[in-house]
Amino acid sequence: MSNPTRFILVDNKLPGIESLRSLLASLRPRPELGCATSLDDGFELLQQGPASGLFLDLTLLGERAEERIRGLRKLQPHMPIFGLANDVELAAHARRTRWVDESLLLGQLDATVLSMALRHTIRQRRLKQELKRTRRELRTAEDRASELRRKTDSDAPSRATAPLLVDGALAQAQKMEALGQLTSGLAHDFNNLLAVIIGNLQLIQRSNGGDERLGRQAAAALDAASRGAKLTRQMLAIARRQPLEPRALDLGAQLAEFREILERTLGKVELQISARPDAWLAMADPSLLESAVLNLCINARDAMPQGGTLRISVENRSIGEQGEATAFGRLASGEYVCLTVSDDGAGMDSATLARVIEPFFTTKAPGKGTGLGLSMVHAFAVQSGGQLDLRSESGLGTAAAIYLPKASTSEIDVTSKTLTRLTEVPTGDEHILLVEDDESVREMAREMLRNLGYMVREADSGEAALTELHTDAEVDLLLTDVVMPGKIDGLRLGQKVRQRYPTVKVLYTSGYVGASAGKNTIKLAQPLLGKPYRINELAAKVREVLDEPDAA
């Protein structure tokens, strides 16, 4: 997080205020500070322009506290309010009644506490406002989609109803975009927290001196954090914004490894798996593929409460130049590996089939399903470069087909090298410039890299990284976060470094592919390390990029 640029301080000369002024003045870059001794003067300052934070003497609120706070919020809804007090009970009451976003006790305030309060509170305020906005957009889009469905349910698609169908697709797209923006913002912060937890747990494991009890505790915590990371990636799949880590996969072999878990999940449902021996290798993220197959199998099991047969097949498919229509979009021409999950359960009618990939839509009883399963499967297939097709009729069962692109020879080679490196924890002594705006994540990554033997320099923004390189260009690798505030995000920084310092290798890291990536979503040609990462993954990826031959 970059430091805010303008604060407003409204106080009645509380003891400790001068100390707060000094702490604010010590921030870099130094923010503008507007001061007032009364609420009326504070209102005037807020009307002069946006503020990144308001520090408010709580004794000034008086009996009309709620009314005055509402007035402040109305002026600048996104601005966090920090309550200032010397009295513990007053500070706690202001926080409990939500007059303020955070209460600060002046007698206990130092640079560390202030920095943590700013970082946490400004981020929380931003997420709350994003949540409110997204909820409004979701309600609007849902109402619009419901109205369009009512208009079109009674009519067969025709020239007359085509515009309504287009509007329906637009409303659905708007709803997905709103949900994606909310999910991405939350996931970015959550992945940063998990990155710190996972990284430090691994450092504890590497330096615990053989303490078995501590080792078991660290391993248990690490497993829980890893499950949290997996859940975050599944949520990002809905928005199609998770950074994929595709590999060349033998889907038949993957299913064979996964069979025991599927059989335990399916209970009395019989499982049949058939994969053509000449099936191509497919390009897909293995963990997300596993989640997609499990989701489809759980849906099939629930459609057969009395038992039945679930069939999973793998075959090659070549799609001609005209492409091919599927239930949810057109499949582009090319070569694909098709994984199909079919059952002989209850099936679905056409109205249900038209809505099954909508987030949170479910036909299951309350508490029996979230309505996210098929949304994740569809988004995973599309982001992987393929498509999901679904065929179903009431009483005749359902067949869900995931189309995944065929892996090329070069992609197979890259996968082979990556899997070999992931079994090792390679080290090195090169110079790395680490660029990360989140201080906690930066500290964790720095310690991991130094633990691996590398010489590490740091920067908290793209601008600071370019200054560092201009001062001393002795850098072998730029390791940069993709999503950063300011005019130079990670992608732009990488492009500038490649142009100005062609010998410097670039490795990107991200918890999600955000709006900054735009159409330039990071491919294998631009190495990406997904957050949160383990030390062996970091070691392997850094070594892989450093060992790449220089471009001719």
The assigned structural class equals alpha/beta
Instruction: Write down the overall geometry.
Output: globular
Q: For the largest sheet, list the strands in their spatial order.
A: 2-1-3-4-5
Distinct helical segment count: 16
* Model regions low in confidence, pLDDT < 50 over at least 5 residues: 156-170, 415-423, 514-525
Query: What's the mean pLDDT score?
Result: 77
Strand percentage lies at: 15-25%
Number of strands: 19
Largest sheet: 5 strands, parallel
Distance between the termini: 37 Å
The helical percent reads: 40-55%
Report the C-alpha radius of gyration, rounded: 27 Å
Features:
single chain; 552 residues; alpha/beta; 5-stranded parallel sheet; 5-stranded mixed sheet; 47% helix
Please describe what this structure looks like.
With 552 residues, the protein is α/β, with parallel strands linked by helices. The protein contains 16 helices and 19 strands. It has helices at residues 17-25, 39-47, 65-75, 88-96, 111-153, 162-206, 212-239, 251-266, 286-302, 350-353, 373-383, 409-422, 439-451, 462-471, 490-500, 535-546, and strands at residues 6-10, 32-36, 53-57, 81-85, 102-105, 247-249, 270-275, 282-284, 309-319, 324-326, 329-331, 334-343, 387-393, 397-405, 431-435, 455-459, 477-481, 505-510, 528-530. The strands form five sheets. Strands 2-1-3-4-5 form a five-stranded parallel sheet, sandwiched between helices. The protein has a five-stranded mixed sheet with strand order 7-9-12-14-13. Strands 16-15-17-18-19 form a five-stranded parallel sheet, sandwiched between helices. Strand 13 (387-393) and strand 14 form a beta hairpin. Helix 9 runs antiparallel to helix 11 (373-383). The chain is globular.
